[in-house]
Amino acid sequence: MQIGATSTTGSPTGGTQNKAALEKAAQQFEAIFLRQMMGAMRSASLAEGISDSSATDQFRDMADARTADSMATKGTLGIAEMLMHQFGAKAGASIGGAAAPAEDKSE
Asked: Which regions in the chain score pLDDT beneath 70?
């Protein structure tokens, strides 16, 4: 009986950790997507500017990365939210399916 209660108690914690890890991965994916999109937009410039140099390009890349991270954290485009919706249901079903038999055995 205690074994069933222990495994039941451990399941929600694992589910919470899995959900947090999935949310973090989804935000990181959105940030990477935004960085790639911003880089593609920057490379589409038609002419060189007066202050273009490798140092300026490096600073611009760092600023773009920081902006992309900030936008992903705020969920500006909603890509992370869509990933959470799609993969969260699958992760929840596998976690819920594992926890349900333990609860039935303890009752």
From this structure: 1-14, 46-47, 91-107
